[in-house]
Write a structure and sequence with these properties.
Length: about 120
């Protein structure tokens, strides 16, 4: 159910209060992440940003907004396939809205039932 256009006051949040969050004191998984940083290329980032910012506008009610969302959806899908993540359940899909431009939902399945938000 799409509730994007629905007004919310969220009284239950105010009544419940916010739970304290405990953040890690230092980064984790450095041994996994650091080697990946060497594979990042500025040229690729520039190419993608130049394409994405070349749309006349990304206004959600415009044709350009739909075109930019379609381009971005294709980029995410290509990344999932190129990385092999599709073989492990990663997916990307459109989430339609009444105004034309869709949202993009990328799902990366976890290995446990513990909730992880990225």
């Amino acid at each position: 159910m799409d509730i994007t256009s629905t007004k919310h006051t969220y009284p239950h949040v105010a009544l419940a209060g916010l739970a304290a969050v405990t953040y890690p004191s230092r980064p984790a998984y450095n041994d996994t992440v650091k080697p990946l940083l060497k594979t990042i290329k500025k040229k690729n980032m520039r190419k993608h940003l130049e394409t994405f910012t070349a749309f006349h506008t990304r206004y959600y009610k415009s044709d350009y907004g739909v075109q930019s969302a379609t381009w971005l959806l294709d980029q995410v899908n290509q990344t999932i396939v190129a990385s092999g993540a599709d073989k492990h359940g990663a997916t990307v899909s459109k989430f339609p809205h009444p105004w034309g431009q869709f949202s993009i939902i990328a799902r990366i399945p976890g290995k446990s039932n513990k909730t992880v938000v990225v």
